[in-house]
Specification:
The protein has six helices and 13 strands. By secondary structure, it is α+β, with helices and mostly antiparallel strands. Helix 4 crosses helix 5 and helix 5 packs across helix 6.
């Protein structure tokens, strides 16, 4: 017999007692009047008590994902300014079940990539995006390729400085974390050339934080129910400290719900065109600085990408740039 768990109550309905399903959870901007999909913003969410986000269920998910190399680990001693190097092999040779058995040990860190490949988590991401669409679609319609990345760690631990291609709703589920986000348009933090290399090749090798520019970032101290939205290519990094840790409560869980839109696709095509122009010795303007130039560059960038794909016999996935 089935029953549902009420969100945030910590209580379970009695067996045999039929109750209506709980109202759909959602995402809300802390400051709705100022929210824009083109900037970083604090958000709130109602997913901290979701059954799929609890540690035992995540351990099961990790067990299922490990054979497909979707569990990732970072080197011991990694700092926020280290290269964001992650590997599908545990650094100490442990099996994934043992990793979770020891997940509360200080410095533990595991990420579960592309969790939408599991049908239960695909449905969860659909639920999250249904709650987020009212924030997204007024400015960025055409959402596609929604994915989820779950990060589980025990402080002190970090996620190094990096950028992503997608827009991101970062949701803190358990424990506390400090998410530091930088303006995606700040070229002092990540030069245009490195953004273009990442968009085209996925290379993060030269996307590193200059410690002198640390003050350009904005810190979000997030706990369960808190989160941050930031647009594609916004540099970001995280750290967890030990000041909140208590017996039985020493693990941080967060999920990045990432997605593309017609806007991110348009900007990526401009980046692709800019990379070719830069190779020709030109200094193209960054996407967004000149809408009419972007309108010319975007179809050229798509043509360059298609030509490159044909030369390499690459078949792009549906909805790709």
């Amino acid at each position: 017999m089935e029953w549902t768990q009420a969100r945030h109550s910590g209580k379970t309905d009695a067996p045999g007692l039929h109750r209506a399903a709980p109202a759909p959870a959602g995402i809300a901007a802390v400051d709705p009047a100022r929210f824009s999909t083109h900037g970083m913003h604090a958000i709130r969410h109602d997913y901290a008590d979701h059954p799929l986000m609890q540690l035992p269920r995540l351990a099961q998910l990790a067990h299922d994902l490990m054979p497909s190399r979707q569990c990732r680990f970072i080197r011991p001693g990694t700092t926020q300014t280290s290269e964001f190097f992650h590997t599908p092999k545990t650094p100490d040779g442990l099996g994934i079940d043992e990793v979770f058995a020891r997940i509360e040990e200080p410095g533990s860190w595991v990420a579960l990539y592309n969790v939408q490949t599991d049908p239960h988590y695909a449905a969860f991401l659909d639920e999250v995006m249904a709650g987020a669409r009212p924030l997204i679609e007024p400015e960025q319609p055409g959402v596609f390729r929604v994915a989820g990345f779950i990060f589980i760690s025990a402080p002190p631990s970090v996620t190094p400085f990096h950028i992503d291609r997608e827009n991101n709703f970062w949701l803190q589920i358990r424990g506390r974390k400090i998410m530091t986000v930088f303006d995606h348009a700040d070229r002092a933090v990540v030069p245009a050339r490195e953004v273009e290399e990442f968009i085209v090749h996925g290379s993060l090798r030269n996307v590193r934080l200059d410690p002198a520019l640390r003050h350009h970032g904005r810190d979000f101290d997030v706990g369960p129910g808190d989160g941050v939205y930031f647009p594609a290519t916004s540099p970001h990094m995280t750290r967890t400290t030990t000041d909140w840790v208590r017996a039985g409560d020493g693990v941080s869980i967060s999920i990045g719900v990432v997605f593309y839109t017609a806007t991110t696709r348009h900007l990526a095509r401009v980046h692709q065109c800019n990379r070719v122009l830069r190779q020709w010795g030109l200094q193209p303007s960054f996407p967004g600085s000149s809408p009419w130039r972007d309108a010319i560059k975007a179809p050229l960038g798509r043509a360059f990408a298609l030509a490159r794909a044909r030369m390499r016999h690459y078949v792009a996935p549906p909805g790709a740039y």
